[in-house]
Predict the 3D structure of the following.
Amino acid sequence: MNLPLPGKSTLVKWVALTLLGLILLAAAYVWATLSYSYADGERAGYLIKLSRKGWVCKTWEGEMQMISIPGAAPEKFYFTVRDDAVAAKINTLLGRQITLSYTQHVGVPSSCFGDTPYFAHDIAPVGK
């Protein structure tokens, strides 16, 4: 008893549907990691730098020196800014003491979305 073998068109459709399914799964994963945050909070310190980096995907990457106990080694906090309006606001406060509001997104698959898992969404100066 001979069973008919699937034709080329059936194989091409199966491969195309499999690839489409994988692409949709990858897109859903990226969307989920960027939409839902693992943690959020605020950190205070001195804003050291903000620069736009990347070969293909340009992102705003910042660095803040955390306020520490006197005599302790200072700790740096690295963050990413995805909104140009927030980056412009941050640029006006360089070198000043600030409070940075952020969300942490775990599992972001590529550095195209940022070099760090910490995404800053607001900043406020401390004091005058």
Remarks:
- The chain has two helices and five strands.
